[in-house]
Write a structure and sequence with these properties.
The chain has 383 residues and is mainly β. The protein is built from 7 helices and 30 strands. Keywords: Hydrolase, Protease.
Length: 383
């Protein structure tokens, strides 16, 4: 049975009743901490000092953990550095770096002096922060989405029966947590991918890999979108559907792949494999060999959604123009073009409708060269 967030929080709250001695590491103990796979996020609860418990997102794609600035100040956390640089898809941003003193999990596992980057960005409803990759690569660990557990083995996992070792590696630095990279093949393109439970989608390729793989092509059906993350900027992207993803013993048929525009800032590796794939696997780290072991967990695939109109917009004040039209989309079939001005519909209503389900319709006016016409798009699954 998958653990829900309410029972997970109750387990962490029970820490308040434990004596301090019970919270110290015990020889040979396996630390079992509840996690919840809820939609497009992995959740975990923890206390900071004597406060909480609080909800955190498990984000193996981040080298450091993150905490809400307002909460950090309320808890009077010590500031390690006032300005720490964080590089993400949106560029480089500056954040304060806090010392959380003691972070304690429901199992009794305590991590002293845990660093957190502060952020003013909301990470999602109920989340006060996220735990980065170091939580999973410091000890041999399991992410078991079926039992709803993160299991930590401070003295090493005793065996790896039933698991397959991926061609993988830990990459990091002395000051930041290691992240996990693994080899995978996408429609014949062999690349190195970061494994990121913080990315809701299935697969992403950076701009160089998008071009090298041949997937960034005007002839291939795509849905336009953009990528955001830490940092103030964004990256133009396309969503495409490919035949197969091969990750060790696992083959995923017809995944949706997000392609960053060629020329976008490069990242470590060729791309990212996200929770849409990882949530169907049992994940185990082996610190001694610095590798990842996996096994299918039997959970069904999650339905991947994308905007089915094929439209992306620019908005400046009350002016809405088309910024991109996806090949093969309903918008392309309707003859809409980049630069057309959209009218006859409020911005909020337009965004809600173009992101609706297959079969729904959205009506508006499109103006080009002083000529205005009525358009009604019917959304279809065209990828």
């Amino acid at each position: 049975m998958i653990v829900d967030r309410r029972s997970m929080l109750a387990g962490a709250a029970a820490l308040a009743a434990l004596p301090t001695a019970a919270l110290r590491a015990q020889t040979g103990r396996i630390y079992r901490n509840s996690i919840a796979l809820d939609g497009t996020r992995v959740w975990m609860a923890a206390k900071i000092g004597t406060h909480g418990p609080y909800f955190f997102i498990v984000d193996t794609g981040a080298t450091l953990s993150v905490i809400d600035d307002d909460l950090a100040r309320t808890l009077k956390l010590d500031v390690i550095r006032k300005r720490a640089l964080v590089k993400g898809i949106g560029g480089v941003a500056e954040y304060p770096l806090y010392d959380a003193r003691d972070v304690t999990f429901a199992s009794g596992l305590r991590i002293p002096n845990m660093p957190f980057n502060g952020t003013k960005a909301r990470l999602g409803k109920d989340a006060v922060g996220s735990f980065g990759s170091g939580l999973f690569t410091t000890y041999d660990s399991d992410l078991d989405f079926v039992k709803g557990e993160w299991r930590a083995y401070p003295e090493g996992r005793p065996d790896f029966a039933g698991l397959r070792q991926l061609k993988s590696r830990f990459l990091g630095s002395f000051t930041n947590g290691d992240r996990i990279f693994a080899d995978a093949t996408l429609d014949g393109f062999a690349g190195e991918f970061m494994l990121d439970t913080g990315m809701p989608g299935q697969v992403r390729l950076d701009g160089r890999a998008a071009k090298t793989s041949g997937l960034w092509s005007a002839d291939r059906p795509y849905a336009p979108t953009e990528g955001r993350g830490f940092g103030p900027g964004s990256v133009s992207m396309r969503l495409v559907r490919v035949k197969d993803l091969h990750l060790g013993p696992m083959t995923l048929h017809r995944p949706i792949v997000a392609l960053e525009k060629p020329g976008s800032p490069l990242h470590e590796g060729d791309g990212i494999i996200g929770l849409g794939v990882l949530g169907r696997l049992h994940l185990t780290t082996q610190v001694r060999s610095r590798t990842l072991w996996i096994a299918p967990n039997g959970l069904p695939p999650r339905a991947e959604v994308y905007p089915m109109s094929g439209l992306w917009f620019d908005r400046k004040g009350d002016t809405i123009t088309i910024a991109d039209v996806g090949t093969g989309s309903p918008a392309a079939a309707a003859g809409l073009m980049v630069g057309d001005r959209i009218g006859g519909i409020a911005w909020s209503d337009l965004i809600r409708r173009v992101n609706g389900p297959a079969g729904s319709e959205v009506a508006f006016t499109a103006e080009r060269g002083g000529q205005r016409r009525d358009v009604t798009l019917k959304l279809v699954d065209y990828l």
